[in-house]
TrEMBL record:
Protein name per its UniProtKB record: Siderophore ferric iron reductase
Record NCBIfam families: sidero_Fe_reduc
Alphabetical list of InterPro entries matching this protein: FCR-like (IPR023998)
Native source organism of the sequence: Shewanella eurypsychrophilus
Superkingdom of source: Bacteria
Lineage start: Bacteria, Pseudomonadati, Pseudomonadota, Gammaproteobacteria, Alteromonadales
Amino acid sequence: MSQAVLAQLFKQCERVTPYLKGELGRSTKEMISTQGSNLVQIKSLYRGLQTNSPEAEKVYWLTRSWDLLTWQPLYLAFTAIYSMKSLPNLSHMAQHQKHGLIAGFRLNEVECTRGDYACLIHKAGQQLSQMFEHYRVELDLWLRCRPGFVQHLVADAILAKLLEVQKQHSEMTDSLVLHHATLWLSAFNISNKHLASLYLSKLDNKLKLSRTSCCSVYKTKSGTVCDNCPRLRQKKRCIN
């Protein structure tokens, strides 16, 4: 039964994006995982970003490295919980990395946990927190990557995913989104102050996210400042 659930989950992931391609099997030494050092792969990832966007500078390369390391585990967790009401073991998840891109993942067991949202969110938060701390420590061995820096990135990513879930699931009311946001932040041991990043838009009366972190994509040649970038708020304050 679990193998069938996992196969369905892989299909759901590829519907999200073809880059989120899952497979069953053990990780290899070329893959990124929590089972050993990833410094070689992380350096390759970072240098690939340097080569692709030499004009963007260190903050972008570090932020983009972090986003690439964590995007698949987050999407997998959210897809499993909100589309399948189940959760695979994320602890041994391994990821493919090549040419400055992380895409495709591997799980080494078929068992999936079933439960209510609170239970699954708590379990996902525990597993992903350990995984992300492993990545952060490795980044910090080579580059400066402090807990406070990544905490803002993770909080923004969680809240953004919840708003995506709301668009796909009509039963996710605003109050339910806020409740689930509290559960997710607690599972990652992140302060509830980040709930203030969610606000009701006066234009369409829908929940929106005002980020506390900047992806720095505007520093690349083709990049622009995102609609919910904190830099826009800073500009408004200067003008006023």
